Amino acid sequence: MFHNLASRAIFSLSAPSFLHLLRALRLHLNYHTLMIRRRTFLASSLAAVFSCGSYSALLEPHELRVESVRARIGRLPGALDGFRVVGLSDFHLYPFTQMSFLKRAIATASALSPDLVVLLGDFVDSTVEAIEELAPALAGLKSRCGVFAVLGNHDHLKGAGFVVKTLRRHGIQVLVNESVLVPVGRSGLVVAGTDSLTGRFNMSEALQACRPEVPTLLLAHEPDVADAVASDGRVALQLSGHSHGGQVRFAGLERLLLPAGGRKYPYGTYEVGGLTLHTSRGLGTTGLPLRLGSLPEVTEVILTPRI
Q1: pLDDT tens-digit profile of 4-19?
Q2: What is the rounded CA–CA span in Å between residue 148 and residue 291?
Q3: Whole-angstrom Cα distance, residue 223 to residue 181?
Q4: Nearest-CA neighbor of 172 among 218, 220, 117, 127?
Q5: Bridge pairing between strands 275-279 and 237-240
Q6: What are phi and psi for residue 96, nearest 5 degrees?
Q7: Judging by beta carbons within 10 Å of its beta carbon (0-12, 13-18, 19+), is residue 78 exposed, middle or buried?
Q8: 42-74 per-residue burial string, b: 16 or more CB within 10 A, e: under 16
Q9: CB of 285 within 8 A of CB of 92?
Q10: Helix, strand, or coil (residue 22)
Q11: pTM, whole model, 2 decimals?
């Protein structure tokens, strides 16, 4: 019945009205086709995002990479040629970064047979008590010339004094705006450490033990102090962390996710004046248990003469 009525209605239309109806039907069909395509595109995009999210949450935070860097140092004493410094940074133990992963990073660092191990801050994240579990594991690091540490901003936010005391109790030398001469053969290396910018950063105090005949290695949690360090001129090599390499490096978002103090030199190796700077991507995560395009890093730096 309805089919017959519709047929009569269509055939009773004038030619212009009939053409108008056809155009309306075509527009209606095109609109629905477009909406279906848009829904398919959105569904595919969401699937890709969730797929990346699963990868960045389940896999990448647990994939360790050793980054090997050759630092060319002017007037490097022969005893330091080939000297190996291994660095670990941004542990952020709990709630997202687990002890089992950090133990694997510690074992990887020791397996590199370092001459010196440096720890670049942010040992804790949500609770300062986590350092009581982390410090004994760090004390197991194997190094010919010792293990040195500096504090990060998260350590200050949760309790810097307790972190320092616990690390020192387990034999780790924490440098808070101070420096020491590490003997190496007939020469040596000055290892200096600044406090975090969140604490009481003082470069002048940190560099008091510098000697012109001996190269200086500076440990500074935030890499962007490198401009001031390079202007001072006494430091040959600076090792830093803090930025996590952005932690989630997504096109257009990378710079937005970088913290203050880690935006100019966020990851990798830089020449800043006469200073060599390496910024580690670190080990742990903070804020969210995600890493994307920024694998956790164990840093290996080998000193070589600058020719």
Answers
A1: 433 434 334 444 443 4
A2: 27
A3: 23
A4: 117
A5: parallel
A6: -90, -45
A7: exposed
A8: eeeeeeeeeebeeebbeebbeeeeebebebebe
A9: yes
A10: helix
A11: 0.82
